[in-house]
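Retro notes - structure team

What went well: the batch runner handled both jobs without manual restarts.
What didn't: labels got mixed up in the shared folder, which is why I'm recording both outputs here explicitly, each with its sequence directly above its tokens.

Job 1
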Amino acid sequence: MATIEVFDPAMCCSTGVCGPSVDPALSTFAANLGWIEKQGVTVARHNLSQEPGAFAESPIIRQLLTDQGDEALPAVVVAGELAAWGRYPTREELISWALRSLTDQNIGDTDAAFADETPMAEAPACCSDTVMVGDVSTSEGSGCCG
């Protein structure tokens, strides 16, 4: 199946969904990635502060950072091609890219695999005290950031 790689800017944890003030866009994106991964898509997520080697090893990301600087992050690579940069994509975009990748590989009808678009109840969290309510997360305590 398709492979989606996300190159995040430097964050305190692997998803950025932690600490006292969580960006709702990160919570939504984490939920969307979790959902698409459950559909069989391979997802790899790299955080600049935790995995700088992944950024250095990717010619696409190295060139993007050379051309655009840190403003290029987050960046998303699908099947070895740059799909988006400077923003987190929507669930619809992730689905579209996964389906296109499968079509490019001449794999049969895959629409059924993505038919259920119900939102996830919770996103992957890097902190045990992060709680998801719909697409909004709340954190109690200090979280992983301090």
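Job 2
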Amino acid sequence: MALGRREMDGNDVREFWYSGQREMLQLFNGRIEVVLGMTREVRHVNGYKPNLHRVVDEIQPVVWQRSLDMMPGYQFGLLEFLTTTKTDRPRNASEDFPSSTQWISETVQRQERHGRVTSYQQLFALQQGRVVYSEQCLAVDMCFKLKYLGFKS
């Protein structure tokens, strides 16, 4: 994917990434917020977004929720319950990540439209307050590993 546009608003960064297959990822401070053109899409996210840089300073996990509008089947207002917390370096993390890297793990539980609850883990690596690597999911069966080029890991 190629960076199409970056918008700065104070310390907040919104990025728009595009592929040659007409896919688009919109990231807000490193977190996937909108996905278009893929087999699963996120059309809208509503709710609180913790600042990941501040999470590393928290003693207790940050518990929060958000709602999503997803495709296919226009699933409106799917509720997600998230627990975000600082964590140690994962065992499988590349040794190229400097020791100063701060790690955030996140547990996501989603109430699917037929009442079934799904759960998955997400991971974020921060360097100097910026997400430089993440493992994020749209669903249990659709996850992404995102790494900024130029960051050596």
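One thing worth noting from job 2: The mean pLDDT is 90.
We'll revisit the folder naming next retro.
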